[in-house]
Design brief:
The structure holds 2 protein chains of 2 kinds. Chain A is α/β, with parallel strands linked by helices. Chain A contains 9 helices and 13 strands. Chain A has helices at 41-48, 89-99, 104-117, 133-145, 163-178, 190-196, 214-221, 260-270, 286-295; strands at residues 3-12, 15-25, 30-35, 56-61, 74-77, 151-155, 182-187, 199-204, 207-213, 224-230, 243-248, 252-257, 276-282. In chain A, strands 5-6-7-3-8-9 form a 6-stranded mixed β-sheet, sandwiched between helices. Chain A has a 4-stranded antiparallel β-sheet with strand order 11-12-10-13, with helices on one face. The chains are: A alpha/beta, B alpha/beta.
Chain lengths: 299, 417
């Protein structure tokens, strides 16, 4: 059940939304899609789901294109949240689950356990319009997963939620993965992707600028972060050979350096000048990588 | 259960349970009941059983009887009473509401009758017109006697001219049949007109609601847009049939209960007693086809708007088409033979009403009806194919613009280059 994208391209008139995107997402994998607004994430998802036809390339899941015959195996949380405002939570979820090929009784049992899990069982008979936005989002999430999909596509699943609910949803997503679902999700929040995904892809203007496993990406990036907290003046380090970026903080400096050797040289340079409270060499965060790869082209 | 049926029944049951549907249905049932019981209702409000009592002050002593006789033959609801008091007393009695009015009869110089009519208001023109006509006839009789005409001569003078109408065309409808057909066609045209406008609106709103609430994206990822569109059209179609069935059953039941009181009135003239089966069959065919034509149009127009407020604006041209068809049909009721009517009956957007008018009023060859129906069916099919493609792209399009240019954009979205 591998999801494969081969040279997928989508053009709207003159505008190219997705350009030659090739990916392979193995079964039971959590795959993260990153990208600035308008990078082509949603368009890619829509093409995977068969809502839009690609202009070129092929998308297959288990060797076949995804069409409506597979709709009971696929779950989708669209970026633009939407439910029937006038319909009760229960009727709504049962209707949407039945459209995904679930039996009514089974859907009712599942929906109760999900509402319990999200600590909102009292909303079962409320109309969606009476719920807060965060709770509506939980309902929307339930709608995407109620029918136990094998392939789950989540477009910005955590946006607009408070930290408690983000944790709750994250746990739910991880459980689904353990139960055998392949999950593709997009986010603006790097830390979520960093925390949850084995593989990821950063899209920029429709083309993948970074693609692979998280560890490899970080290793390939090369640059590291160096945090120094010291009692003496550190400003001269900003012009040190091999320092890419530097930022002064209250307690010292944050440096982005080209690699470990640079850190060694810096250490030699500052040792003996005074008391060093912290000297830490850190892996680059996904945020750094994203800003470097995507942000550069804005400049 | 198949997705198609799930959507169909979801649409149907949801609308059926909605407050607005129940309220409109009940209101209409009340109106239907009121219309079919019109005679009873009028008599409730009219204490005198609809009869107007007019006091007659006959100064001659000779005119009252012939006048009463004539008045009775013109309108049996007019009740005349001889008043044996003065004019003043009579006026007071009118003021008290004992009489509707006072008519003073006297002879003029030539010994012919003349009258003065007094009432609190002379708004009820039908009453004094009837009285005037009655007196006119009394005058004619008296004048005839004055010039020594015998009653036989008089009768000859007033005998109505014989005027018979024949339609030369084979199978053409007789006068009576035409009148009957006109009433029936009139009512059915109204039903088609209102249903098409109402339910097409409902479909456009339904689609736009799903789109504006953004639930659409989940829906189209579960079920193909084409399936959805037709499930919705048929679901609302079922709803319309349910509503019509309620009206017809209530109407029919109420009518048959009141048949006796109604047979001389409107319904007698317009012949609802024996409705020709063929006309009903055509009515059903054209109702269903007309519904499908406009419902498909409404569904894809509804898929183009992003906000519910824009629905009306989007479907206005469609509504105007229905209104135009209805106007032409109304004109055609009086002149169903006109070349203009024949021509427009083949234009698919007008066919449901105008071709129905023609088959109902005229005896046209069957092939003409079939040709009209065929054109209509082909148009519906073409519109469905085209509409489904627009719908598929339209539901994914969000934006400010709500113009017909969006149709092109929606088509491009689904095109596989």
């Amino acid at each position: 059940m591998v999801l494969k994208l081969e040279g997928v391209t989508k053009r709207f008139g003159q505008f190219t939304a997705v350009d030659q995107l090739s990916l392979e997402i193995p079964e039971r994998e959590m795959f993260g899609f990153l990208g600035a607004n308008g990078a082509g994430k949603t368009t890619t998802f829509r093409m995977i789901l068969g809502l839009l036809d690609s202009t070129g390339g092929r998308i297959t899941w288990d060797g076949k294109a995804i069409d409506y015959s597979a709709s009971h195996l696929v779950g989708y949380l669209p970026e633009e949240r939407g439910l029937y405002p006038k319909l009760k939570v229960r009727d709504q979820l049962v209707y949407l689950a039945r459209l995904r090929g679930m039996q009514k009784n089974e859907a009712l049992i599942e929906l109760k356990s999900w509402l319990e899990r999200f600590k909102i069982p009292e909303y079962e008979n409320k109309k969606v319009e009476e719920l807060s936005k965060g709770n509506q989002q939980k309902i929307q999430f339930i709608a995407a997963v109620l029918h136990k999909p094998k392939l789950l596509i989540l477009d910005e699943p955590f946006s607009g939620l408070d930290p408690v609910n983000v944790e709750m949803l994250k746990e739910a997503v991880l459980t689904l993965k353990e139960n055998g679902a392949t999950i593709v999700f997009s986010s603006h929040r790097m830390e979520h992707v960093e925390e949850m995904c084995e593989h990821l892809c950063i899209l920029h203007k429709g083309s993948p600028v970074v693609h692979g496993s998280l560890k490899e990406i970080k290793r390939a990036f090369g640059k590291k972060n160096l945090v120094i907290h010291a009692d003496f003046e550190l400003d001269q380090l900003k012009n040190f050979h091999g320092v890419v970026r530097a930022k002064s903080t209250m307690e010292g400096v944050h440096l982005q350096i080209e690699g470990e050797p640079v850190a060694e040289k810096i250490l030699k340079e500052i040792v003996g000048k005074g008391f060093i409270r912290k000297f830490a060499l850190e892996e680059p965060s996904l945020n750094d990588i994203f800003i470097e790869k995507v942000g550069n082209s804005y400049e | 259960m198949n997705n198609f049926w799930i959507i169909l029944f979801h649409t149907y049951l949801n609308k059926l349970k909605s407050k607005s549907f129940i309220v409109t249905t009940l209101l209409t049932v009340v109106i239907v009941l009121a219309l079919t019981n019109l005679n009873n209702i009028i008599s409730i409000f009219d204490k005198n059983g609809g009869k107007e009592t007019v006091a007659v002050l006959d100064e001659t002593g000779k005119l009252y009887d012939p006048f009463k006789q004539q008045a009775a033959s013109i309108n049996k609801d007019i009740k005349l009473t001889k008043f044996n008091g003065t004019e003043k007393e009579a006026e007071i009695a009118i003021g008290k509401g004992e009489f509707k009015g006072l008519i003073q009869l006297r002879f003029n110089d030539e010994k012919l009758p003349e009258a003065t009519y007094k009432a609190r208001s002379i708004a009820d023109s039908s009453l004094y017109t009837d009285l005037q006509t009655s007196l006119q006839q009394v005058k004619t009789m008296l004048a005839a006697t004055q010039i020594n005409l015998t009653p036989t001569q008089l009768e000859k003078l007033y005998e109505p001219v014989s005027f018979e109408k024949f339609a030369l065309e084979k199978n053409a409808k007789t006068e009576e049949e035409l009148n009957q057909a006109r009433g029936l066609v009139y009512v059915l045209l109204f039903i088609i007109y209102f249903s098409v406008i109402m339910y097409a609106n409902m479909i456009a709103m339904e689609v736009a609601t799903e789109k504006s609430s953004r639930v659409m994206e989940i829906l189209i990822s579960s079920v193909s847009p084409i399936k959805q569109m037709f499930a919705k059209i048929i679901g609302i179609g079922l709803l319309s049939l349910t509503q019509l069935a309620v009206f017809l059953i209530v109407g029919y039941y109420s009518l048959t209960k009141n048949m006796d009181s109604l047979k001389d009135g409107f319904f007698g003239v317009y012949g609802f007693k024996d409705i020709p089966g063929v006309t009903i069959m055509y009515a059903v065919i054209f109702f269903i086809l007309g519904y499908f034509l406009y419902a498909t149009l409404a569904a894809f127009l509804g898929s183009l708007v992003s906000r519910i407020e824009d629905v009306q604006q989007m479907i206005t041209p469609m509504t105007l088409l229905v209104v135009a068809g209805f106007m032409i049909a109304m004109f055609g009721l009086g002149n169903p033979d006109a070349a203009f009517i024949t021509a427009t009956s083949y234009i698919p957007f007008f066919t449901p009403m105008i071709m129905f008018l023609r088959v109902g009023m005229l005896t046209i060859p069957v092939w003409e009806a079939i040709l009209g129906i065929s054109i209509l069916v082909i148009t519906i099919a073409a519109l469905a194919v085209f509409g489904a493609r627009v719908y598929r792209g339209g539901v994914l399009m969000y934006g400010q613009s709500n113009s017909y240019k969006d149709i092109k954009k929606a088509l491009q979205l689904t095109k596989n280059k």
